[in-house]
Predict the structure.
Amino acid sequence: VAKALGEDAPVDSWDLIFKPEYMEKLANCGVTYLDSPDEMVTIALHYTGQDIGKTKRSDFKPSSPAAKALKGARPYIKQFHSSQYVNDLANGDSCVAVGFSGDVFQAAARAEEADNGVEVVYSIPKEGSEIWFDMLAIPADAKNPDSAHQFINYILRPDVIASITNYVWYANPNPDSNSMIDAEIIEDPAIYPTDETKSKLYMSSQLPSKLAKIRNRLWSDLKTGR
């Protein structure tokens, strides 16, 4: 990215993957979008100042700000994929990818292990982004709910969950584990965001089926270049 855009590249902003003046210069080294309208269209809505909690039909029109932002970047997108970017980043086949934090940290670990000269860095855009959670759930009709509760209690024990965080580089919900987490992880704002960053994060919501169809059509048209 630095080679394409210089040291002042806006790596902490959605401008990097939406503004044509940046995307055009990044096209040769490869930009990957997630192949997911739920994530990518919502990101575009948020980036263009739309209220994602009050999404309406007009937000998905070709003339909408979000659609224009996506279409402006479209000519310079190398691929739409929701998993291939892990290997592509690690191998240096893509220089920018919109992806999930855990996947990007995995790519960084692979690049470091391969010692191939590729440095992979994860950044939360300053404008804010979607927040996600991995969950442990017990089905309502589980045959052994007591055992399931015991397992979850074990996993969330400070020493156990800290060891998991240290291995997978995922934040965990138990603050009592913080003292056992490696400093490079607990002090990394991309893994444990500051309160200021957390205030800019949002949760996507399930759209009504009619709106979801319109959004998905917009996404299909974008991918096919229509």
Notes: Residues 209-224 form the longest helix (16 residues). DSSP finds twelve helices and three strands in the chain. The two ends are 28 Å apart (CA to CA).
